[in-house]
Each structure stands twice: as structure tokens, then as C-alpha cells.
Design goal:
Layout lengths: L8 E2 L4 E5 L5 E6 L1 H7 L2 E5 L6 E2 L4 E7 L3 E5 L4 E6 L9 H4 L8 E4 L10 H8 L1
Antiparallel strand pairs: 1-2, 2-3, 3-9, 4-6, 5-8, 6-7, 8-9
Family: Belongs to the GcvH family.
InterPro entries: 2-oxoA_DH_lipoyl-BS (IPR003016), Biotin_lipoyl (IPR000089), GCV_H (IPR002930), GCV_H/Fam206 (IPR033753), GCV_H_sub (IPR017453), Single_hybrid_motif (IPR011053)
Keywords: Lipoyl
Length: about 130
């Protein structure tokens, strides 16, 4: 069974969202379930720094030995940080999807949206 940390929120596209350093910034990545389904990750196209992203829209791409998958932004806002370490070590997503394998940070305007709870996400991956 995949790891689903209780302190995160989730999307049906298998992304996770964590509260960031301030109330308007959130760190995102793909879930343990997603990285497991992809297999060995060999390349990631990160979102562009300072680019605008829309919830549900494609913001990047992950290539594995099995397939190429799109990364969907779970939030609407602006990319304020990307994990540049993934350029040389994309396999970090496989090894530590909720830690070293984070993808980007998004700054939003307004209140934080409500996404799936860990319990709801476990329901779609069971």
C-alpha cells in the first residue's frame, strides 16, 4: 500500500500539496502512488519559475522508463520556487516523493482551496 501522509492534501491526479513557509505559499509534488505507478523516473520538466499556473492545467512533465506523464497544477497561482536538484537527480521522486522529491512551490492569492483529505485520497488509491 502507498504512503499517504496525514499532514498533506491531495488531488485526484495524484499530486500532493503542503502548506509552505507562509499562508499563501504551498509546496507540491506527486504522490507515492503516482511514482510507484510510473516506475523509475529518468527526467522531469519542471514548471517555469515565475510562471502563472492554473489549477487542473498541465504545468510540467515526468518521464519514466515506462511512460511520460503530465504534472497538473493543484492550485492557481505563480511558481515561486522549483526543485532544481531534480534536474540532475529525478530519481529523488522515487526515493522520497514527499521530501527531496518535491517539485515546486506555488504562491496563491486569496484563501487556500480545499483539496482531498488523506482519507479521501486513500479511497481512490485502494
Amino acid at each position: 500500500m502507498s504512503s499517504v501522509p496525514d499532514h498533506l492534501q491531495y488531488t485526484s491526479e495524484h499530486e500532493w500539496v503542503a502548506a509552505g513557509v507562509n499562508t499563501n505559499t504551498f509546496r507540491i509534488g506527486i504522490t507515492d502512488f503516482a511514482q510507484s505507478a510510473l516506475g523509475d523516473i529518468v527526467y522531469i520538466q519542471l514548471p517555469k519559475l515565475d510562471s502563472a499556473v492554473t489549477a487542473g492545467a498541465v504545468c510540467g512533465e515526468i518521464e519514466s522508463t515506462k511512460s511520460v506523464s503530465e504534472i497538473y497544477s493543484p492550485l492557481t497561482g505563480k511558481i515561486v520556487a522549483v526543485n532544481g536538484e531534480l534536474d540532475s537527480a529525478p530519481e529523488s521522486i522515487n526515493a522520497d516523493p514527499y521530501g527531496k522529491g518535491w517539485i515546486a512551490e506555488i504562491e496563491i492569492e486569496g484563501p487556500a482551496p480545499t483539496l482531498m483529505t488523506p482519507e479521501q485520497y486513500r479511497g481512490i488509491t485502494a
